Amino acid sequence: MTPGRLHRVDTATPDWAAYLDDHPRAADPAVLAFMPFPPDGRAGSYQDTVDDMLAVLDTGDTTVNGYSGLFPATYDELEVAAREYPDDRADALLVQYGVDALVVDRDWLDENPAAASSLDAGYRLLHEGTETVIYLPLQPARP
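and the corresponding structure tokens:
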């Protein structure tokens, strides 16, 4: 086992979770995707995923990003495509996997204008928080 650094979990309610808790949704529980995906497979790259995972458990929703060491079988394909976002394959997989909302890190959007343009063109802006932006797919994820 490789030693790893401990990650202090932020116990404050994220802005996206507060928004979703305060606004009823068509899909409950919702399937969420958090962007950006980790840039590589190293353990330290998943720290933000840990915080997202814990907040998802509090909201009662689910995520295609995986839960700690337990990732959906489809996760690897989505993670590889999403690392290169904007990526048409990633968008298609998000629809295929039934994602109801994308929770996107605001700093990442500011640093990646191509990703921001792609999300603005292919998704509907639902909420802008101080740390995150929530987008809804233009096409329904569920029949």
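(Above: one complete record from the training split.) The helical segments are 15-22, 47-59, 75-83, 88-96, 106-111, 113-122.
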